Structure formats: structure tokens, C-alpha cells
Amino acid sequence: MGTTDAGHRMSGDALVRLVAGCVLQYPGDHFHDELPRLRAALAGAPAEPAALLGAFLDEAGALTPIELCARYTGTFDTRNRRCLYLTWWVDGDTRRRGLSLVRLKRIYRDFGLEFAGEELPDFLPVALEFAARREEAGAELLREYRAGLELLRLSLAESHSPYARVLEAVCATLPGPSPATKAEAKALAKNGPPQELVGAGSALEPFGPGIDRPLDLPADLPVGLPVGPPADFPADLPWPTTPERRTA
Questions:
Q1: CA torsion, ordered 242, 217, 156, 182, to nearest 10 deg
Q2: CA–CA gap between residue 104 and residue 122 (Å, rounded)
């Protein structure tokens, strides 16, 4: 642990994002097998977020796979405003959100990463992997969607979910204090269209949950059903919609 697939040593914040992205995926049947490697990765992370993620791993490890999968599916959805899709917090289920997804795919490509996952590109674990592998650009992307991250953190805390610790650890990698209330979190939202991230891409590397992940975790993820795209929406991108919830 501690290096990317290109041999570049990860910072402590990058390790936090990488581990957080792994535990925010649907746990499947093999999560418990990966616990030693996840804990080992945290050895190089800053103390506070490492402690938060370690506490989550301890609690998750005490559950059976069925119990953990049930907890995951019972936690993340849009009806309770606990959504793992970043553009949903900004755009909702609108045409504008579809354009935001196209933009995210372009950003990944600009930084040499060809998005090859089955998930939508705004799925938080995807963004966290990008932020671990392309740290400067990834941190900028997370800051752009920080209002949504903080609102998700607060919603999880209100429901006393252990996943709140994971979001707290992610937000701790960003500059400045986290907002204490939803009103403060909403005040973080930017006005107008998002700025473009500009990167110098190299030879494209495949990435996305289940595709050449640094921790090689299983790709058992919730998948949204593409419905109702406009006629001019790109054919290679699923139209965003509220994801189907898995049953354990």
C-alpha cells in the first residue's frame, strides 16, 4: 500500500480517500476479506481521519456480510437525502445533471484516466479514487462538490449511521472546518456553472469501481437504471436516475 499503480507514493489524504471510496461501495461477500489491507493502508493516513475510518472498519467487521449489505442498502438513497451521486446534490434528476456527468467523464479523460466502470461517473467512490490517483485535480473536484459531501455527512450523522464517520474522514482531507449545520453546508454551494478542470492527460489508464482498482476490491455495486434520456444525450453514457436499492 501507499503507492499508485504508476509507482507514485500517495499522500496521507490520498490514502484516506482511497479507503473511504472502498468502504462506500456496496460491500458484497468479500468485504471482510479486505479488512486487513484496508487497515494497513490507514497506517500512512493522518491520525484523525484514520481513527474515524478505523472505528468504522471495526463496527463493519463485527457484522455478518448479510447484515452489512442490509445496512448499506438501508442507508444510501435519495428519499432520505443520503445519496452517493455527487451531481444529484447540485442538479437533481434533471437534464443539467446529464451534462454534468458528461463533463466529469471529460475531466477524468483529461487527466489520463479512461472511465471504464459500470457506475455513473459522479458515484462518490469513483470521485474518491480519482482524488487519490490524481490528488491535486481530485481535491479540486471534491471541493467543487463539497456542499453535497457535507450535506451527506450531516444527513448520515442525523440518522446515527456509522457511515457518517467515513464522510467525516473524507471532509477532513479538505481545507477549512466542516459546517455544523445544513444551512452552513448549503452556503458552500457555488453560483453559476462549475469551473473547468484543465489537465494534461497522458496515456489513458482505465479506472472506476471494479476496473483496475488499487486495492482490487470486488465490483459488487448498486447500478442506476438509465431511463428517459433526451434525444441528443450521448449514447455511451447512462441517463441518471434514482438508483435501484439492492436487497441483501
A1: -70
A2: 7
Q: What is the pLDDT of residues 129-155, one digit of tens each?
A: 999 999 999 999 999 888 889 989 999
The phi and psi torsions of 115 (rounded to 5 degrees) equal: -65, 120
**All domains in the chain, ordered by first residue:** 12-207 (1.10.3480)
As a whole number of Å, the CA-based R_g of the chain is: 17
Q: CA angle 113-131-54, nearest 5°?
A: 130
Contacts of 193 (CB under 8 A, 6+ apart): none
Q: Which residues pair with 9 in a beta bridge?
A: 3
List of long-range contacts for 82-85, beta carbons under 8 Å, 24+ apart = 82/152, 82/155, 82/156, 82/159, 82/161, 83/152, 84/24, 84/123, 84/124, 84/125, 84/152, 85/120, 85/122, 85/123, 85/124, 85/224, 85/240, 85/243
Neighbours of 160 (CB within 10 A): 7
Question: What is d(CA 207, CA 127) in angstroms, rounded to the nearest whole number?
Answer: 11
- At 120 the pLDDT is 86
Reported as type and span, the H/E element at residue 205 is strand 205-207
The 10s digit of each residue's pLDDT in 188-200 is 554 333 444 544 4
Low-confidence stretches of the chain (pLDDT < 50) are: 1-7, 180, 190-196, 198-204, 210-248
